[in-house]
Amino acid sequence: MDSEEHLFAGLKALGIEVEDKDREGLLLAWAGLAAMAHRVMECPLPDDAEPAPQFLP
Amino acid sequence: MTETTAAHIEAVLGAIGARNSACTAYTHVTAERARAEAAALDKRGADETAGPLTGLPYAVKNLFDVAGLRTLAGSKINAENPPAAVDALLVQRLRTAGAVLTGTLNMDEYAYGFTTENSHYGPTRNPHDATRSAGGSSGGSGAAVAAGLVPFTLGSDTNGSIRVPASLCGVYGLKPTYGRLPRSGTFPFVASLDHLGPLADSVSTLAAVYDALQGPHAADPACAQRLAEPVLPTLGDDIDGLRLAVAGGYFCPEPGSQADRAVALVVHALGVQREIQLPDAERARAAAYVITAAEGAQLHLERLRRRPADFDPLTRPRFLAGSQVPAAWYVRAQRVRRWFYERVMALFRDVDVFIAPATPISAQPLGREQFLWQGKTLPLRPNLGMYTQPLSLIGLPVVVVPVDTGDGLPIGVQIVAPPWREDWCMRVARHLEKAVACRAWITDSQAHA
Which residues, including other chains, have CB under 8 Å from residue B171's CB and lie 6 or more apart? Predict the structure, then answer.
């Protein structure tokens, strides 16, 4: 399953129907989100870096 | 002033009626309520019970509850909800302080945007050039002040939604420390990032309104149990004792751009000599983006299931994408957030206040999709927040000051302090306001003069 199939399968699993006219915009939004997530995932965090508390500061 | 509050408010309502259609700042004018509040103030008279904001007209982003009105949050779906039973807490506090509510203001749907190009209620147009955006998501809040309709408004800021319209409309805006102002009675977007705050036509008004809004409230679990820390008493203090710096690296605007010149003007006016580097600010911005997508989509999941076609075409695809954020991305983003917070706090050991651009560019034509930045073509709408997102991610207080670079449109600069030091941001902003280059851009201030 490629990422596009995975995306639409995930939406379907949540009970969300995507109309054909929305597919292109959704894929564009997903690409933007994935690019941001890539920056987050490549961040060289130390093992003891805790998730932020719900409420900062 | 011999004019009654009722007469003053009538003039304000007249100006709103005459000029709102040019900018679509308001989505609802609470004329009868404003008249009643004004009459009550006149009846009470100028005795010692008068509040600090007595007779000042204002309006709120339409995600604030106003008794008797439906809390739209910029959406078509929420227009079917029952009217709010009571005012949002901050609206209650402003009423106690004597301010007069004149209406509710346009915004991006569910606050997910930086341009207020709302397909349900129309775009908010920039009062300085009606072909351009007022910024967002609190675009109506910025435009109402810049158009001279009211001296202050309330907005919300999750990733920059007070600071971006303040920058593009040329007014002052405050995003307080996360947890400073209670959000009770407002429609949320991203619980762990949502802030409320004022926009105003002067620093003194911004400070007076902020002081009236402060104080804890148990109904918002994120609201810190801190007593009010008024900023007005020290607003006029000099800034000689503050250690100032300018943010470099990620926060360096494109050389020679309007944003670059704005930062240079502020740096010069303040005599800033030092530059600091916020470590991995680009990754922090990315973390804010991921957290926003995940939490925002989670909030709207049921609406996405039931009524996807009723979402604004500009928000629907992003909410849909956000619903699929893997846990690995979200948790990693929260770890980056904590890591970034601790490293920025370390910088504040040597610096009290730093300067950063608010937006990479000034107001752009409505409908524009892209802009050129440092040799790259970037999507416009998400990137208006590139300089605001890393700072709200870690809850820092920020005041945006408007700057006149001589380019015909305003642009803002962020004044940033450590948590709970809004007073430092305000003092620096007041110092800059005295400089001619940092006055608010108001197209017509006759309505509330």
Answer: B142, B145, B146, B165, B199, B200, B201, B402, B440, B441, B442
Considering Cα of B42, then B46, then B47, then B48, what sign does the dihedral take?
positive
Pairing, β B57-61 against β B152-157: parallel
* Mean pLDDT, contiguous 10-residue spans, chain A (57 residues): 85 93 95 96 91 70
- Among A18, A29, A55, select the one facing B318 at the smallest CB separation: A29
pLDDT tops 60 at residue B221: yes
- Closest CA in chain A for residue B328: A41
The backbone region for B164, taken as left when phi is positive above 0, alpha when psi lies in -120 to 50, beta otherwise, is alpha
* Cα nearest neighbour of B338 on chain A: A52
How would you class B236 by CB atoms within 10 Å of its CB: exposed for 0-12, middle for 13-18, buried for 19 or more? exposed
Which two structure tokens, joined as six digits, stand for B347?
């910088």
> Do the Cβ atoms of A36 and B316 come within 8 Å?
no
Tokens of B387: 């300089």
Q: Quote ipTM for the complex.
A: 0.92
Pairwise CB contact (< 8 Å): B338 & A50: yes
Q: Residue B400, Cβ neighbours under 10 Å: how many?
A: 32
* Nearby residues of B422 by Cβ (< 8 Å), 6 or more positions away: B174, B176, B177, B180, B210, B229, B231, B397, B399
Chain A environment of B323 (Cβ under 8 Å) = 10-11, 14, 16
Indicate which residue of B75, B133, B137, B167 is catalytic: B137
Chain segment B265-297, per-residue pLDDT in tens? 999 999 999 999 999 999 999 999 999 999 999
Nearest to A52 by CA among B290, B350, B219, B352: B290
How many Å lie between the alpha carbon of B82 and the closest alpha carbon of chain A?
A: 26
Q: What single-letter amino acid sits at B72?
A: L
Closest by CA to B89, choosing from B141, B25, B154, B32, is B154
Query: What is the Cα–Cα distance from B96 to B213, expressed in whole angstroms?
Result: 10
Q: Tokens for B253?
A: 């605007």
Asked if omega into B52 is within 30° of 0 (cis), the reply is no
Residue in B367, B414, B440, B411 with CA at minimum distance from that of residue B257: B411
Specify the pLDDT at position B44. Answer: 85
List of residues 6+ apart from A38 with CB closer than 8 A: none
Which residue of B283, B323, B419 is in closest CB contact with A40? Answer: B283
Question: How far apart, in whole angstroms, are the C-alpha atoms of residue B180 and residue B228?
Answer: 9
For chain B, the C-alpha Rg in angstroms (whole number) is 20
State the pLDDT confidence band at B137, using cuts at 50, 70 and 90: very high
DSSP structure string for B5-67: HHHHHHHHHHHHHHHHHHH--EEEE-HHHHHHHHHHHHHH-SSTT--TTTT-EEEEETTB--T
Q: Is B278 exposed, middle or buried (0-12, 13-18, 19+ CB in 10 A)?
A: buried
